[in-house]
UniProtKB/TrEMBL annotation:
<protein>
    <recommendedName>
        <fullName>Dephospho-CoA kinase</fullName>
        <ecNumber>2.7.1.24</ecNumber>
    </recommendedName>
</protein>
<dbReference type="InterPro" id="IPR027417">
    <property type="entry name" value="P-loop_NTPase"/>
</dbReference>
<feature type="binding site">
    <location>
        <begin position="13"/>
        <end position="18"/>
    </location>
    <ligand>
        <name>ATP</name>
    </ligand>
</feature>
<keyword id="KW-0067">ATP-binding</keyword>
<comment type="pathway">
    <text>Cofactor biosynthesis; coenzyme A biosynthesis; CoA from (R)-pantothenate: step 5/5.</text>
</comment>
<keyword id="KW-0173">Coenzyme A biosynthesis</keyword>
<keyword id="KW-0418">Kinase</keyword>
<dbReference type="GO" id="GO:0005737">
    <property type="term" value="C:cytoplasm"/>
</dbReference>
<comment type="similarity">
    <text>Belongs to the CoaE family.</text>
</comment>
<keyword id="KW-0547">Nucleotide-binding</keyword>
<dbReference type="Pfam" id="PF01121">
    <property type="entry name" value="CoaE"/>
</dbReference>
<comment type="function">
    <text>Catalyzes the phosphorylation of the 3'-hydroxyl group of dephosphocoenzyme A to form coenzyme A.</text>
</comment>
<keyword id="KW-0808">Transferase</keyword>
<dbReference type="InterPro" id="IPR001977">
    <property type="entry name" value="Depp_CoAkinase"/>
</dbReference>
<keyword id="KW-0963">Cytoplasm</keyword>
<dbReference type="GO" id="GO:0005524">
    <property type="term" value="F:ATP binding"/>
</dbReference>
<dbReference type="GO" id="GO:0015937">
    <property type="term" value="P:coenzyme A biosynthetic process"/>
</dbReference>
């Protein structure tokens, strides 16, 4: 089990996955809440069975997987349905996140959570790393990546913690507005720092 957990977050389009991939190449175990949230509703899971019982088989696509767009449309217009879904999924996600954290074997591990700041998860990790870029860069990158309209990206940004709110809880910040070489230098420097922290915890 890793003795030291670094929570990682950043707004849409900040390049959080690029950063965690860079740490993964240094043999750091990455626990990704986005991946876990998909896994807990995969075919055959308790999560998916409960959703089908609640909303009917029309919530499945042709491959019998969860139709996420259809589910989003339901919960967007129905606050009770959204609350029910959160009550179902959040404990499942927490349980699997804890299991993966316990199973991590690297000196320190990283917990990547999109809403780390918004849901208060930053209080449960040893260190908070925020991936930061200017808001204009968030918009440009997200529009290119998701083939989405500017208005949609800005509405998603408005629903997230602000850039300032993220920076206020950060112990460390990676500026991901530069090139790959600049990012690599920052990742390596933080990797060495986190190894020192993890070693100190292991020896205490």
């Amino acid at each position: 089990m890793s003795q030291f957990v670094v929570g990682v977050s950043g707004g849409i389009g900040s390049g959080k996955t690029t950063v965690t991939n860079a740490f993964a190449k240094l043999n750091v175990d990455i626990i990704d809440a986005d991946v876990i949230s998909r896994d807990v509703v995969a075919p055959g899971t308790k999560g998916l069975r409960a959703i089908v019982e609640k909303f009917g088989s029309g919530i499945l696509d042709q491959g019998q997987c969860l139709n996420r767009r259809a589910l989003r449309e339901i919960i967007f217009s129905d606050e009770q349905a959204k609350s029910w879904l959160n009550a179902l999924l959040h404990p499942l996600i927490r349980q699997e996140t804890l299991r993966q954290t316990m199973d991590a074997t690297s000196a320190y591990c990283m917990l990547s959570v999109p809403l780390l700041v918004e849901n208060g998860s930053y209080k449960n990790v040893d260190r908070v790393l925020i991936v930061d870029v200017p808001e204009s860069t968030q918009v440009t990158r997200s529009m290119a990546r998701d083939k989405a309209e500017e208005a949609l990206i800005k509405s998603i940004m408005a629903s997230q913690a602000s850039r300032q709110q993220r920076l206020e809880v950060a112990d460390d910040v990676i500026d991901n507005s530069g090139n790959e070489s600049e990012l690599s230098k920052q990742v390596l420097a933080l990797h060495q720092r986190y190894l020192q922290f993890a070693n100190a915890v292991a020896q205490s």
